[in-house]
User: What shape does this take?
Amino acid sequence: MSTIIDGKHTKDKNSFPVKVLSLSSFYQRMHAIHPKTLEDLEFPTVLQQVAARCNTELGKEGAFKIEPISEKGHLLQLLEQTSEYLASFTNENRIPNHGFDTINAELRLLKVENTTLEVSGFRRIATICNTVSVHKKFLKKFKEYYPRLFEFSENWEENKSISEEIGLIIDKFAEVRDDASTDLKHIRRQINEVRGKINQSFNAALQRYQASDFLDEIRESVVENRRVLAVKAMHRRKVKGTVMGSSKTGSIVYIVPESTLNHTRDLNNLEYDEKEEIQRILKALTDFIRPQATLLAGYQDYLTHIDITAAKAKYASEMNAILPEINTKKKLVLKDAFHPLLYLSNKSKREKTWPQTIELHPENRIIVISGPNAGGKSITLKTIGLLQVMLQSGLLIPVHERSSVCLFHTILTDIGDNQSIENHLSTYSYRLKNMNAFLKKCDDRTLFLIDEFGTGSDPELGGALAEAFLEVFYEREAFGVITTHYANLKALADELPHATNANMRFNSKTLEPTFQLVLGEAGSSFTFEVAQKNGIPYSLINKAKKKIERGKVRFDATIAKLQKERNKMVQTGSRLQEKEIKAREEAERLEKLNAKIKNKLENYQELYDHNQRMIQLGNKLNTAAEQYFLDNKKRPLISELLRIVETENSKRKKTTAKQVKAEREQKKQVSQELEKKIVQVREEKKIEKKKVIQQEKNMPRPIFKVGDRVRLQDGKAVGSIDTLEKGKAVVNYGMFTTNVSVDQLELVEAKK
Assistant: This one.
């Protein structure tokens, strides 16, 4: 079984055995990723959105159980299956419907001896068997398009006997067939005969008592599923039979005629026999299906998995997610990455979502993001973590196709306010406890994400402790991204060779965030600028500036100045890039034009050479004809003609019969392609013409006047209108005049 690693297909040792697999073995939890991490990254919300796109109840339940996968082979197979299902949305070979009703109740009954399934249960089982058969047949036919889904479907053997046997017993209306057994067929024939006798005897009694005027106007009714006579209360004793009740007013008594009672008893006996025979047939069918209970459970698991895969593909389609390259080089390159929840939320509001580009690799393992609040630092952090968790759970992610990701054994997060009321822990105490857990788990296969690193305590002491933690993470070669306002952490990131600073770009003029990450430099907090924008008095801001060290203000101002310079450089770079793209496009256009001109010149040269040769050949033939005209000798003429032909043939290349055939086939193919193109162009022109005609029909017709310059809709000649009368116009073209309907005219120029 092959998997995509570094853009190549390789054999995977962790491939699935071709046996029945349960979903519990398919979705294995990666215990190194703590549930609190999943909550911090809002992964349960993603699962909720995936579950909403499932068609079945079991699919919805399974979607909520999706968790990070520990087995790399299983994970890659899940990702590729989802990617294949996503591809089916854009090609003609759509994967068949996988909807089904759960058969859990039937599976439980099959485990108990001497139980019998209901007719509706058999219908559900038959539907599941037929759906799986359709899927297996489809995936086998298109296994080149869907190799992973085909391999997964091969884990279950096809069993047509179950649905066929059910089809022989139960019809499409969920009724037991008459020919389900010989005895049932005989019983139902007798039932029909007895019912006929009942109807005959009842109709005879109805006519007799109607003639005697013993019946009410309604004549008859139905009580307890039986036809009864509606007898007037005063004549109740004159009608022999069994009383079944009376009307609310008591004026009508409902009586079954005595003549039908004997037949009714026979019918009851036959209906009992029918019920017993149906029960026997269904029990035999249940016993036939019972040994296949494990296979049926597997079929249900298969369709549940397909439902979850389809939901993940729909989810991916809505946010333009893909399966990026998965590398083994411990490199995380996310290009144009979107936060899924934010992207879908903004998409529904028709608002723009800003993508992020970030890169982690052994030479740049840790990134320290700084900058003002509300600039997008936390969103960037959550985007990285959520996309990584989604990918390691078998979900496609919204990134550029040139992105490349690796798999982490452990993902650690410390995001948001984690104050614990139950344990009486402050935010800082909780964070210290969290950092202690980080130290125990952190290694070179870890990705850590920490928001507002070091906050919650005295800035100097908390910053120093955070710096020590960061140094330990760095020494253990862990990968991570942190956000902070502490200057000492920014300085440390600048000093460490495999760490780097980054900032969220901020417009210093409008003091609005641009939500774009810039690597290579620390960010200013813009504390005083933001305060000034929010209406804080300048005198108060000035007073605050005096209360801190002058060096700190100058350091922050320098950072802010560097950011402004960076923004200018980025704008200049963007303009230069645009100019470069335009210049490249112009160069490509000129190159194509040059190639076309060169091709035309070559064609003209070939045509010129051919014409010159034909002229020379014509001159030779003309000379031979003149000589024959003078001396009227055939032999010299034929000799000269043969010499000319042999001379011309010697210039031609000798070709074999096979080459001649190949050339003819090539010419034929070119001719066919040309004909197809001509037909296509003609069709396009027809469609375009229809559109123009439709537009003209929708446009209001002009009001013509005498003297207007007009032309016919299908013509080119322009004339002037001499007279107009009853929708007809006489158009003068100078040399002649013509009488036409105004509906056929187009206005060229109105009379001034």
About this structure: The chain has 22 helices and 21 strands. Confidence is low (pLDDT under 50) at residues 1-31, 419-424. The two ends are 81 Å apart (CA to CA). The chain has four domains: 2-173+289-323, 180-283, 332-546, 709-749.
